[in-house]
Amino acid sequence: VTSNGRANERRSPDQVLGGLIQLAQEAATDQMSVREQTGVDRLERTLAREQILGRGWFAPRSRRSRATFTLTLAAAGAAAAVLALALNREPDETLTFEVLNSQSGRDAARAAGAAGAARKGAQGLDRDIDGATPGTKLRFSDGSEVALEKDASARVASLEARGGRVLLQRGSLRARINPVTRARWTIVAGPYSVHVTGTEFSVRWSESDQVFDLGLHKGSVVVEGPLAGEGIVVSPGRRLVARLKEARLVLGRVDEAEPVAAGEPSKPPSEEPQEQAETQAEAEERAAAVASRNVSRAEARARRAGGNRPATPALSDTSWAQRLEQGDVWGILDDADRRGIARVMASAPRAELAALAHAARYGRQNHLARRALRVMRERFPQSRDAREATFFLGGLAEAGAGREAQESARDWYDRYLAESPSGSFAPVALGRKMVIVHKLRGSEAAAPVAAEYLRRYPDGTHARAARKILESR
Amino acid sequence: MGAMTKAKAPATLLFLPGGLAAGDDAALARALVREDPTASRVAWSRFAPMVHRMLKRALGPGQDVEDIAQEVFMTFFRKVKGLRVPEALRAFIIAITSMTVRYELRRRALRRWLRLGKEPVEEVVDAQAPSADSEAREALRRFYAILDGVNARDRTAFVLRFMEGLELTEVASALDISVATVKRRLGRVWERVARLVERDPVLRAYSGQRGAGYGEDMT
Fold first, then answer.
1. A51 closest CB neighbour out of B5, B138, B162
2. Which helix (H) or strand (E) holds A195?
3. Smallest Cα–Cα separation from A191: which of A219, A238, A216, A228?
4. Among candidate residues B58, B1, B23, the one with its CA nearest the CA of residue B174
5. pTM of the model
6. Taking CB atoms and an 8 Å limit, are A51 and B6 in contact across chains?
7. Which of A436, A438, A427 is CA-nearest to residue A463?
8. CB distance A168 to A187 below 8 Å
9. Which residues of chain A have a pLDDT value below 50?
């Protein structure tokens, strides 16, 4: 019998594998995120750039130049391999851990045949450990510690050379992760994953109430899961609470009893921002954007270092629009930081503001992107960029948490469709609106939108979903 | 790419019934070859969901596949003029996606080798499972960790056949190998993965929790 009380059935290996394949199929369907859908915009930029520059990653080359290219690539690859072996070598030993002060840990150790009151290493993997005994703690060989509260049940799912995965099945834990270089830890609590490099925080997960509660004391973490869109960066002193039954996720301060709601605007977006609220919101956005950017930049650097894409050349003298064409997203964001975000927002020409908004979107700096897009609408209301900003604001809102965020996204899409009925993003806007209405109010309410979609775009990306909605009534 | 990317046609032209969007794959292929300015968007609209889905299933859900999807489409647009049978446009992009997947899997394997250890924890997979079920997510993570031990070509064949449901001839075409070879590879990889799955107590236990009929009829 498993932890949730269901009895196991004995299944053949083929059935087990078939079941896992089915699970993988359900996890990856035709549904694309807004960011993925608008990838066509990015693709066309790249295609246009290659046409202008006459050279590209996949550009055809002469036989001779191709041979030279291959030799150069091979030499560079060999050099990179040597360098990687010298600099990037992981420690050989997988981390181990021991459980301190736990009755269940001692029981598990006895069951595993280990001597003493503690169990170590792989022998303890995937065994439930409860925090019934005060002071129960998992101590890892890299110096990291996870302390379990009385109500907690957890297990170590896997360990690597620089981190591991700890599953919190219920209750609360407090973690202190040693900030060693390239540390990679994940704490899984219910449907949430907390990605950690080095920090102190506490997590609580209630299976019965479906509540996730994270308080961050030091460092920064990225939380992924329902309502969290593409991931939320939590900075020190912050508390993130997700209540799944209420479809509500709020970010507040650690010392607050219950954080106040944050995130997307709950009402249809207003053209007249309120002066005082905006100032506070801007301060929040700045802090969040900086924390978020620090994490994302580190990831981007790591990706570039290990990836197959060429490094971006220095482009500081070219315009932001040109740099965006050449993929220098982080250069633009750094430049904007240097010049001062407030000054850029107030005085940058339209093309620069648009480039900054796109760079922030591509770099997943959603707070900054949202701000730039709103400023675009205010300063250049008649421009095509301003109309497209409306659509992108919808996408950013949709990535936010909770029902209010979805309603806000629907309002932005509505506004875009009213302002630009034949705009480039009208098919996506209408499709996303249909999906949101279906999610919020069901098939009956979504049917008119689905019919409208099929009438206008019978071969569009959302056509299949639209037909399903109409058939399901 | 010629004029295909030079001008962006109004969306109304792209999606009107009876226009290029309503045409079949052969019509779209011919439009791409003659650099119809509306064709790139229609191609994206038609194939992007499939490409993203294939990439996610091949590499593991939760993986950021957007950059790789861009590479697939860049290759597609560069090579589409060489397509000899316009009706085979869908097979053409499936083949490119498969090739890109194999390249990406080999790149990741090389990185693992250079690190002399396993892939970093979150790179293996952090699945957005269909349910808010941490056990399902853990099961998927373990499943993809097993697939990481399968070579790139076999894994791609496995995904195309069992996750995407392609016919054997379609898998053979995508991988540019014979049907007999596909059969042999699939038999071998199924047996190996099933054995490794069976050895994993968490995967066995998870499968047991799912209802009757789960995983039936896959083979």
1. B5
2. strand A192-196
3. A228
4. B58
5. 0.48
6. yes
7. A427
8. yes
9. 1-8, 52-65, 89-90, 109-122, 260-317
Q: For residue A163, what is the enclosing H or E element?
A: strand A163-176
Residue A201: beta bridge partners? A175, A216
Give the gap in angstroms from C-alpha A346 to the nearest C-alpha of chain B.
30
Contact B194 A16 (CB under 8 A): yes
* Residues 57-76 (B) with a CB less than 8 A from some CB of A: 57, 61-62, 65-67, 69-71, 73-75
Q: Which DSSP string do the residues of A402-427 spell out, in sequence order?
A: HHHHHHHHHHHHHHHHHH-TT-TTHH
- What angle do helix axes A384-398 and A366-379 make, rounded to 10 degrees? 150
A230 lies within 8 A of chain B by CB: no
Closest partner residue to A16 (CB to CB) among B49, B107, B204 is: B204
Minimum CA–CA partner of A158 in chain B: B121
Min CA distance, B88 vs chain A (Å)?
19
Picking from B70, B107, B114, the nearest residue to A85 by CB comes out as B114
Determine the Cα–Cα distance for residues A193 and A189; give it in Å rounded to an integer.
6
Q: Residue A270: left (phi > 0), alpha (psi -120 to 50), or beta?
A: beta
Place of tokens 């790249």: A46
Question: And the tokens for B101?
Answer: 């997947």
pLDDT, tens digit, for every residue of A285-336?
444 443 344 434 444 444 444 433 333 333 344 688 877 766 677 788 888 8
Write out the two tokens for A242: 């997700």
Whether chain A has a CB inside 8 Å of the CB on B199: the answer is: no
Q: What is the pLDDT of residue A5?
A: 41
B123 has pLDDT over 70: no
* A-B Cβ pairs (cutoff 8 Å, strict): 256
**What is the complex's ipTM, to 2 decimals?**
0.81
* Whether the Cβ atoms of residue A188 and residue A217 lie closer than 8 Å to each other: no
Instruction: Report which of residues B219 and A413 the model is more confident about.
Output: A413
Once rounded to an integer, what is the mean pLDDT over residues B85-98?
A: 93
Count the helices and strands in chain B (H runs, E runs): 11, 0
